[in-house]
Structure formats: C-alpha cells, structure tokens
Amino acid sequence: MNAKRHMSEVPMIQRVAAYFAILVGYFFYCYNFVIIDYVRPYIVEAYDGITLSDTAQFYTWQSIGALIGALSCAWVASNFGKKSTLIVITALNGGATIINMLFTDYAMWALMRFIIGMSLGGYFTVAVSLMIGLFTPTVRGKLTAFASSMFSVALMVMGAYAAFISSIDAPWQSLMWVGGIPPLAAAIMMIFVLPSDKKVIAYGEEEAQASSNNEPVKKGSWGEMLSKPYRLITLSCLLLAGLNFYGYQFFSGFVTTYLKEVRHFDGATIGVIFSISAFGSLFGAWIWGAVADKYGRKVNAFGLILAGIMASVFFVAPSNMMIGSLNMLAILGLIYNFGLSSSAVWGGYFSELFPSHLRSYGAALFHGGRIIGMWAPMVLIFIQERTNLETAMWGSPIVWIIAGLLWFTLPETLKGGIFYKEKTPKAVTA
C-alpha cells in the first residue's frame, strides 16, 4: 500500500479549487435551508390541501432531517470517507430539491423536506471537517467564517432572483430549480478536485497518522464522543449550539412581528430596519473569522455578549430616534447581527476540539444542538401567551450572554491565542 502524502504536497491550485467546490455546495446548503420560508405563500396558493400551518411544519420536518443527517453523516464519513460522503449528500441535496417539485400534496412535501434536511445537516458536518483540513490552522477561522457568510449571501441572491422572476412573470418554481441544479454540478466538480482523505493526510491529522502507522485507523463513534475524556466538551458544545437556536428564535425569529405589533412601524420601515440589520451578519463573519485566526477562537465569545447587550438596548430604544437618515433600531440591529456572526467559526472550532478521527462528529454538534433548540419557538409562544411578545423576546439577551460565558469555559484550540493554555486537554488539537 502506498504511503499517504501530506496535504501540503497537494498543489495549492487544487486545494483552492476544492475549497471553492465546497463553498458552492455550502451556498446551496444555505439557500435550500431557507427557500421553504420564501416560497411558503406560493405553495399555499398553488396547491389545494396545503395550508399555511402545513407549510410551517415543512420547516420542522426539514430541521428534524438536519439533526438526523448531521449525527448520522458523522458516522458515515468516519467509516466510508469524507470525500465520497460529501459528494453523495451534495448530489442528494440537488436531486431531492428537483424531485420535490414533482409533488403537490402535504405528505410528499413533508417527506421530501425531511430528506433534503438530512442532506443539509450532513453537508455542514462533512464539509466543515474537510474544509479545515485543506489549509493551516492560522486561516481556518477565516475559511469557515467566510463559508458561514454564504447564509447572508444566499438570502440576498434569493431576494434579487425572486424580484427578477417576478418582473418577467416566471413561475415561482424557478426559485426551487436554482436550488436543485447547481448542487449536482458541484458534486461532479468535487469528484475531480477534492483530495481523498484516504490518500492524503489533512492539516491537523499528522499526529493521528503517525500513531496509526502500526495500529488500525481509528473510526470514531458517538459513544467515544460521550466517553470520559470528551463528554464535558461534547455536552458543552451541544448546549452552546442549542442556546444559539434559542437566542436566534427569541429575537430574529419574531423581530418583524415585534416591529409591527409592538412598535407599530409600517412595512417600508420594517423592511429598511430588517435589511440594514441583516447586513451586519455578512461583513461580521469575515471580521470575526480574522479575529479568531489572530487572537484565538474564544475571543469571539465577546461577540455573543455584544449581541446580548445590543438586543437589550434594542428593546428600550425609542422608536423615533434617528442616526443620520437611519432609524436607530436599524443601527442597533446591525451591531446585534455583527456580534452574533462571531459564531460563524463554530464549525471549524467544534472540530478542532477533538482528535482528527472525531472531527466530523465535532462539526455535527452544531446541528446536534437542534435537540435542544427545536423547541425554542414553542417556548417563546408559551411565554408570550402568558405575558406579551416583548417580555418573551427579552429571553434573547439573557440567552446570548449565558452562551458567551459558556463559550469561555471551553478550551482554546489556536496555539498562541490569547486564551491558549499549554496544558490543554488531550481532546484539543490544533
């Protein structure tokens, strides 16, 4: 058997092309995750027997699929290879989205959104663990954060494309087709440009490879993730990811409703506040990625605390205060989303917290947090029904500050980072 070569021996142009292919898949991972929200009213109008309440359940089925996909694909990638797993789930993402359009009844739409959800959760898990192995640890934060910023880019592209097809009277299904065909092309591209993890030693896996020269290659399992050396870190990451979904739902999930029903803004003002606020996520991810690579991953915990503070100020700020030509709430929302985007490094960071054979499992912990976070909307509604919406939404700043403090309890993985300690747990690998 030929010895494995190191990733540094793979031509830079191939590694950049591999990152680009993963990035294309990541864009459509984000696009297909939120497309169901955008086409919801069109589905209700086009298909008899599917109500608005039914379409809300499609997102639930998709989220359950994402949870299962993330947890199961970590095992699949560990046993059958990351490259082959990523190619299959990328193709599944595109293929299932196209097949989805063949059905018009609730049961089949729910089933297809569940299958698509599995591919989406699986994609994040495997893509992140492959992505961070292409280059040195000093650029991982920027690479994973830039990939995470594709969520904001996908929303912008979706809105622009929706406006375009509306102007030419094209069918709304065109939005779905865009989510189906490109992932298939990306999957084909991956065949040729992704380095095989069975033939190449990724950055950060050198020590594991050296120790396995005379031993069977470790596969990893969820049992090992919950074993004594890693249990506390695993559960902390799950809780941190779960708090992320709670904080997001308690603010972002209902902010337009809050602006309309509590602040009594008109649609145009709400649109301006929402769009300006969302822009903070885009450039914020790039800045926090650079910060994480220079000063360490844990420094980004300050971003969650900043988000908590800005959410608090948002609730008490007057409705009519202007900064220049912009409502103050738009600026506060922008800073809130800027702080929140510090979590864009989580995919790579969660992977770095564990040995190389457990990296896919570490990345899966982000979607694993849905075990906790999927109940967030129902918890908020429970509180809102017994108090009011504004009181319920105050849960957001509380959650973000708790999440930031929890992040500080986890190990720093970047050598030389501000919070790095020489005596780190064996689970932590740069």
UniProtKB/TrEMBL annotation:
| Gene Ontology molecular function | symporter activity
Q: Where in the cell is it found?
A: Cell membrane
The reply on keyword Membrane is yes
Lineage of producing organism: Bacteria, Pseudomonadati, Pseudomonadota, Gammaproteobacteria, Vibrionales
Q: Does the keyword NAD apply?
A: no
> What is this protein called in UniProt?
Putative sulfoacetate transporter SauU
Q: Which SUPFAM superfamilies match?
A: MFS general substrate transporter
Record's GO cellular component terms: plasma membrane
Q: Which UniProt keywords apply?
A: Cell membrane, Membrane, Symport, Transmembrane, Transmembrane helix, Transport
Gene3D superfamilies membership? MFS general substrate transporter like domains (1.20.1250.20)
Bilayer topology: Multi-pass membrane protein
InterPro entries per record:
H+-coupled_symporters (IPR051084), MFS (IPR011701), MFS_dom (IPR020846), MFS_trans_sf (IPR036259)
UniProt-listed Pfam families: MFS_1 (PF07690)
Q: PROSITE patterns this protein is in?
A: MFS (PS50850)
Transmembrane ranges, per UniProt, are 16-39, 59-77, 84-103, 115-136, 143-168, 174-194, 229-248, 268-289, 301-323, 329-349, 361-383, 389-410
Q: Where is the Major facilitator superfamily (MFS) profile domain positioned along the sequence?
A: 18-415
State the species of origin. Answer: Photobacterium aquimaris
Q: What is its main location?
A: membrane
